[in-house]
């Protein structure tokens, strides 16, 4: 289990997110998760690390719990579960108040911004995200 503190990211539901059934289209959840994970990285990593590294999604597994609508106040709760080599594993829970709308497990690969090759994060940088982690 992760000892990371959840990172909260408010989500704006835009009219373009709404599908023919009147609720948020599934593709919008992926965009929200990507934006939330990148926000987490930028919020905790030093500017030089943000400039030197890029993140690409490898896999998303989404469990939809309830529909989301245009006027909903939505927050993504981002939790970094672990870092393993150049990969990071996240859980993002999208909520409206106490209602869980979707749960997303995702894996990401860190890339060197210049070479675009996978890059391990330095231990001291990982510590900013996972205090006392043992990777």
Please give the order of strands in the largest beta sheet.
1-3-4-5-2
- Residue share in helix: 10-25%
Strand content: 35-45%
Distance between the termini: 13 Å
| Elements, N to C (H/E) | EHHEEEEH
Structural class determined from secondary elements: alpha+beta
State the helix count.
3
Biggest beta-sheet profile = 5 strands, antiparallel
Radius of gyration: 15 Å
Low-confidence stretches: none
Total number of beta strands: 5
Mean pLDDT: 92
Give the overall form. elongated
Polypeptide structure, described:
- With 135 residues, the chain is an alpha+beta fold.
- The protein is 24% helix and 39% strand.
- It has three helices and five strands, in the order E-H-H-E-E-E-E-H.
- The protein has helices at 26-44, 47-52, 123-129; strands at 7-11, 53-64, 74-84, 87-96, 99-112.
- A five-stranded antiparallel sheet has the order 1-3-4-5-2.
- The longest helix has 19 residues, at 26-44.
- The mean pLDDT is 92.
């Amino acid at each position: 289990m992760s000892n990371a503190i959840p990172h909260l990211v408010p989500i704006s539901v835009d009219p373009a997110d709404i599908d023919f059934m009147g609720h948020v289209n599934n593709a919008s959840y992926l965009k929200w998760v990507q934006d939330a994970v990148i926000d987490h990285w930028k919020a905790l990593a030093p500017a030089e690390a943000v400039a030197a590294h890029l993140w690409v999604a490898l896999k998303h597994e989404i469990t939809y719990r309830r529909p989301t609508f245009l006027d909903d106040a939505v927050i993504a709760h981002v939790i970094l579960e672990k870092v393993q080599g150049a990969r990071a594993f996240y859980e993002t829970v999208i909520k409206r108040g106490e209602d869980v709308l979707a749960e997303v497990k995702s894996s990401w690969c860190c890339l060197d911004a210049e070479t675009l090759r996978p890059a391990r994060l330095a231990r001291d940088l990982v510590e900013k995200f996972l205090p006392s982690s043992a990777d």
